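Subgroup meeting minutes
Present: P.N., E.W., G.H.
Scribe: E.W.

1. P.N. recapped why we're keeping a running log of single-chain structure predictions: easier to compare across weeks, and new members can see raw inputs and outputs side by side.
2. G.H. added today's entry (401 aa).
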Amino acid sequence: MNYLRLLPEMISGDISQFNLTIRMIFAAAFIIAQCILMWITGIFFSWLKHKLTMVVNKFVPSLSIKKYRLLDTVQILQGVYLLLRILTWSVIAVQLFITVPLVLSLFEPTQHLAHSLLGYVLSPLQKVFNNIIHYIPNLITIIVFILIAKYTVRTLKFLFKRIETERLVIPGFYPDWAHPTFNILRILIYIFTIAVVYPYLPGADSRVFQGVSVFVGIVVSFGSGPAIGNLVAGLILTYMRPFKLGDRIKIQDVTGFVVEKSPVIIRLKTHKNEYVTFPNSMVLTSSIINYHSSGTEHGLVLYADITFGYYIPWQTVHEILIAAALKTNMVLHEPKPFVFQTALEDFYARYQINAYTKEIDHVPAIYSELFSNIQNGFREANLDMTAAHFRINLPEDRRHI
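Output recorded in log:
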């Protein structure tokens, strides 16, 4: 047998066996290294969980917006733990993604499988990256439109703030119009910006995106009828200026102070600390009495009707009523209170005492004191306030029958 002819084959087999052993050693080392890294990752996230728990318990007892508590400490910690678990498994998944294809690529029979696994992940990532690169011009356009809208709104806010504080005066434009007008313009700018930006959004031409848009439009059109009616009514009331915040007004049978004016509702606070809410559409179709409009300039006229029989001279009734009004706190002495005789009935005359006041916030208390002073005035004059509807005069000889 020619051993020299078999020598190259023997050497080649030894080299292949040696290479396979080296690759198996590398694969085992890499797997062990990744297992150690996963163990370290678990320890690190356990330590991070402990630290975050201490921080949340110490510095974030609850998550609140103004007076509304959204999340307590337990709920916040549950959310933090969920995020940590997601992050832990994400890191482990990345490690496995690196380990498995790399180990498979060390051996010729599994190299195609390694390439396939890499292709399943890298191909979508490559497509996403390419789409992002191609989308950059549209993204820049969207950013430009958003910045223009943002700084336009800021400029309008600055101007209307100066109008509201009367630092900037525009003839015919009232300061209380500034805030609602700014809100209207801001909403219009946002709507215009959305309409301009919409075609540049990713997937704007897809049927799914168009279907969602149609669905949203249908929901808004069916569900916002009354709301839009109230918005329009609120806009009309704003520019009609029938009242402002703090005014004492009467809507239907309710009298109170305006404590809230929104695009949808008007809220009154009565003298009994009751809060009554009216939709703007109802307010627009109702009669509104504003006691502050003339009361703050000339004084609000308070009045009360009194009846007295004709056996009391009208001059006496006038004097007592005027004196009672002048004794009442918060009633103006100038203009002076006055009396109207509003009716002459069959058995009595009807008098009306009128008095001025500028203390609109205290009208019920003023009325109460005025009524008390009227009663005291007639009692001091020994006059009975009960008006008889008839009187029978009997002859002298029949009065004792």
